[in-house]
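Duplicate of earlier report; FAD-dependent oxidoreductase input re-posted below.
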Amino acid sequence: MKTVNTQQPVIRQVAIVGSGLAGLTAARRLQEAGTEVTVFEKSRGPGGRLAAKRVTGGSADIGAQYFTIRNPRFREFLHQHAGEDVFAPWQGRLVYETATGATEPFHSALRYVGVPRMTAISRALAEGLTLHAGVRIARMDRDSAGSWTLTDTAGEMFGPFDGVIVTAPPAQAYDLLHDSELSGLAAAIEPHLAGMQACWTVVAHYPGSLGLGYQGVQSRDPVLGWAANNSSKPGRDGDGEWWVLHGTPEWSHQNRDLSGEDVTRQLLTAFTRVCSVSAEPDELVSHRWLYARSVTAAGPGHLTDHRLAVGIVGDWLQGGRVEGAFDSAESLIRDWREAGLVTR
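Output:
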């Protein structure tokens, strides 16, 4: 959605709501253009889908399990702004379950992970940025001069800003825009509301090796969609094996209000069934993702209103892959440059 105004002043100060990969990409690109950037994150730190949960002896990746790099600009961006030492290829053997119950290897490709955890990438990208963590933005208001003020759920106000970029999942972005009386942009998000999948995640520690012969499996089970040996990723130290279990989108949606204890029991039962695991875990952690990933194969890349200097980005607008978050932010900044909102 675009409302072009060639007389729109250049954006000098911008607020970014969310510090996942899309928000951090936009922040870095705008900073390169000389724009003053302030990032707001409702959680304790940056990450988004590049999420990890602390466990005994380290952490386990509970969000995106790996990412690929098809766009050479994405690799250049990571090298320049995060560093070469915070991500590396995951050499684990990954398989998928066929209709007959056999397993076949994934197609050959380089799959990367953050080192020593997925959040290492987002934390490196956030270094040096003005970032307010633990702040949930509830409303955006624009005055007669065109300046934006953001208000959080505690009533604290931030601003003024010349522009705002929203990077939240579609349901949360819709609520923010609707509550801010930005009906046009909210309406543009509506088609994407049904395209986000939920995911229950359980992390299980086993004191010894399970000896499965693979480090990740995509299952056809109605409960368990994915299981991965987090300990097989580079930089993950510690004894035993930490396995990350993801419920299928359908089962996770149907059981989104189930207790963590019941979810853990069902996913462990499915893991035992699918992978013929007889060992018992000695530590368990569960996590619910209401908006885990997009099912949309393609999208508009971003949404924006030039007149208001508001943009919306996220992987859900660019196919759902981790790299899609980068591509989405890139497309918005390129759009703003062409519109004269960003000067370089």
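The mean pLDDT is 94.

Merging into the original ticket.
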